[in-house]
Every structure is written in structure tokens, then in C-alpha cells.
Amino acid sequence: MRRFILITVCLFICLCAAPLAAKDTITKPVGARPIPPLLDSVRFSGDILLCGELIPYGQTEVRERLEKEVMLAAWNRPQVILWLKRANRYFPLIEKILKEENLPLDMKYVPIVESALRPHSRSGKGAVGYWQFLKSTGRRYGLRIDSKIDERRNLFTSTRAAGLYLKKLQTEFGSWLLALAAYNMGEFGLSTEIEAQGTRDFFSLYLPLETQRYVLKIAAAKMVIEHPEAYGFHIRAGDLYPVFTYSKINFTLKQEIPLSLIADAANISFKTLKDYNPQIRGYYLEGRKTTILVPKGMEKGFKSRFSALHKAMKKQDKVRFHVVRPGESLIGIAKHYNMTLSALLKLNRFSYKKVIHPGDRLLVR
Q1: DSSP label of 33
Q2: Looking at residues 199-223, what average pLDDT do you find?
Q3: For residue 249, which of 262, 267, 258 has the smallest C-alpha distance?
Q4: Which of 14, 20, 338, 343 is spaced 20 to 30 A from 5 at the CA atom?
Q5: All residues at 6 or more sequence positions from 267 whose CB lies less than 8 Å from its CB, including other chains
Q6: Nearest-angstrom CA–CA distance, 352 and 258
Q7: Nearest Cα to 132, choosing from 122, 144, 147?
Q8: pLDDT tens, 75-108?
Q9: CA 105 to CA 115: how far, in whole Å?
């Protein structure tokens, strides 16, 4: 009896211990390092500069604001990891343009805070793209924004436009920190506050809370990205996204061409073509002189493949017109011509919300 009890107890201990051992093995990654205490991230020393201008964290109020942004950034660990990964992909391209425009390289941290380096990022106020341009501001600085193209989503054109805007703001306000504040709240609003408060020192101005935070968010992003190990982010080279590389293909088209045809000619997917050219809206490349990007090397043999596919498309593309009659619907018209609704909408550049009326002319196949 005693032997039976002893065996039972041993089995019970083994069964209980096994899950613990397995759990310990799973939750302890190889090479894992402890995360530094959060307080360590705000024990500042030495000068902290942004665009060559001093952040006076010796002032209690400034230090409190900077501590808040650094701790919030460092503690949002998934976001910082994505910052680091995307920065490796895009920073070399952004830095090249900033150098050409004679801008401080610290400006590369602006799209980190604005969009986390995402081309399709959109704010509640309608700002779009890496640098979060509103339509009016983007157009003022040379960006094309319409139903076919939105260059706010293009890294190269939007970065150059942002550079022009920031240089203009720096000339107007005499400070890069004030230029960043104006970029966030608008130059008229900042000019009004400077005149009312009688100071041009960013840290002495009482501004909208979003703008007060904005400049220090950029400073915090710079601190974390430049010294990730100090904040517990031990990134290996293999963890980072590769630098964005591409080849250019120049077009001079007389008519619109389906993007799917261009993707086929480049031996890439439709999605890849859209990812490399996020400024293109819809499913067609318009008939004009333009340039698209494709993955490096995929331009080889493109012209001959495109020419063959384009000729084949012209032979097969028998488009007719249908005049809408009373009582007809898009679904009914599509069925009549053995087309899918999506094909009919795509052919006519319609959205699913399109309302048709008697007498309208629709393209059908």
C-alpha cells in the first residue's frame, strides 16, 4: 500500500512539473535580455538636440513634457519595433532628399511621428501620406492630388514638398523648432500666438496641447531610434526590413492602360505594382507621360512583353455603348452582357455607390 501511494505521489509531481517546464521553455526566447526599468529612459544626461537646437530639459516644465513623450514612446514597444524596421527601409531615401534640399537630417523623424512611415495613413482631418499633407497644403507645394493620382502617398514627391514647406517656415520663423510647430498647427496660427504672447521661444509659448507635444514627440522618436539598446530594443540586422530598392519605367501613353497589364508585363502581381506606386488611384494608368516603379530588375524585358500584351489587348478589347433605359440597374445591365458587376464598374470607372439615370451611356463588352 505504501509503495502504491509513493508511486502515485511521484506521478502526480511529474505531471504537475511537466507543463511548468514546457511553459518555461516556450516563454523564454533564446538570447532574451531584460527590459531596462522605465525610469532609466528619462534619466537624461548631456545635451539633447533636435535639428541643431537645444531642448532645455533643465527647465522643470520642459523636462516633464519630454519625460512623458520618451516614456510613452519607449513603452509602446510594438510601435517602436515597427519604427526601427521601417526606418531601415525608408530613411536612406529620405536622407538623400533632405541633403539635396539642405535640410537638417533630423527632419526624417517627422514622418515617423506623422504616419509611422505608412503611405496610406490618413488623419481625421483628411491629412494623407507619409508627411500628412492636407489637400490645400500639398497642392500649394506642388503635389498632384486628384481622382487618379495622390502624390501625398509618394515618398519621393511628398518628402521634397515637405522639405520646401519646412524651409519656408524656418525662413519665416527663424527656428527649426518653430517651423515644426507651424507645420503642425499652421503658420497663421503660430504667427498669431507669437504676436499675442510676445515671444519666439518655442518652450515659452502657450500653444495648443497637440503642438506642445508634437515637437517633443519628434525629439523622443529621435532619442529612441538613435539609441534603441538604451531602451531595451536589441535589434539585429536580420530583423530590419531591407532598404527600398526599385527600377523606373517611363511611359508616354496616348490612352489609359489597365494596371493589371503593366503588372503582367513586369512579371509582378497587381498588389506589388500598387505597393510600389501608392500614389496611383484606381485600376488604370492614364494616357500621359509618367513614371512607375517596379522591383529592382523587373524592368528587364518589360518593353517587349508590354508591347505584345498591349497589342493582344487591342484585338480583344471590343467595347460598345449601352444607353440606360428607365427601370434598368447596373446589376441587370451587367447580367444582360454576361459581365460581372465589378467588371462593369471597373470598365466605367464607377464606384459601388454610383447611381445611373435613363439616357446615361455605359461602356460594355
Answers
A1: -
A2: 97
A3: 262
A4: 20
A5: 298, 305
A6: 19
A7: 122
A8: 999 999 999 999 999 999 999 999 999 999 999 9
A9: 18
Residue 323 C-alpha cell reads as 444607353
Sign of CA dihedral 22, 26, 29, 35: negative
Contact 315, 266 (CB under 8 A): no
Q: Are 299 and 268 in contact (CB under 8 A)?
A: no
Q: In this structure, which topology does domain 39-239 adopt according to CATH?
A: Lysozyme (1.10.530)
Residue 148 burial (CB < 10 Å; 0-12/13-18/19+)?
A: middle
User: What's CA 266's distance to the chain center, in Å?
Assistant: 24
Residue carrying the nine cell digits 505504501: 2
| Alpha-carbon distances, residue 271 vs 114, 236, 244, 293, 348 (angstroms) | 25, 29, 16, 13, 21
Q: Which residues have CB under 8 Å from 206's CB, separation 6+?
A: 193, 197
Distance CA 170, CA 282 (A): 37
pLDDT digits (tens, 9 = 90+) for 139-162: 999 999 998 899 999 999 999 999
- Round to whole Å and give the CA distance between 357 and 343: 19
Enter the C-alpha cell of residue 299: 524592368
Confidence (pTM): 0.81
Q: How many helices (H) and strands (E) does the chain have?
A: 14, 8
**Could you tell me if 291 and 248 are in contact, meaning their C-beta atoms sit under 8 angstroms apart?**
yes
Please give the CATH topology (third level) of the domain spanning 320-364.
Membrane-bound Lytic Murein Transglycosylase D; Chain A (3.10.350)
Q: How do strand 284-285 and strand 257-258 relate by DSSP bridges?
A: antiparallel
Q: What does the chain come to in residues?
A: 365
- Residue 174, number of CB atoms within 10 A of its CB: 10
* Alpha carbons 292 and 288: distance in angstroms, whole number: 12
- Cell of residue 246, nine digits: 526599385
Are the C-beta atoms of residues 249 and 266 closer than 8 Å to each other? Answer: yes
The C-alpha cell that represents 195 in the structure block: 504676436
**pLDDT value at position 34?**
79
Distance CA 112, CA 84 (A): 10
CB 55 within 8 A of CB 62: yes
Q: Report the relative pairing of strands 49-50 and 53-54 from DSSP bridges.
A: antiparallel
Spatial CA neighbour of 158 closest among 184, 136, 132, 122: 132
Cα–Cα dist 112/214, whole Å: 12
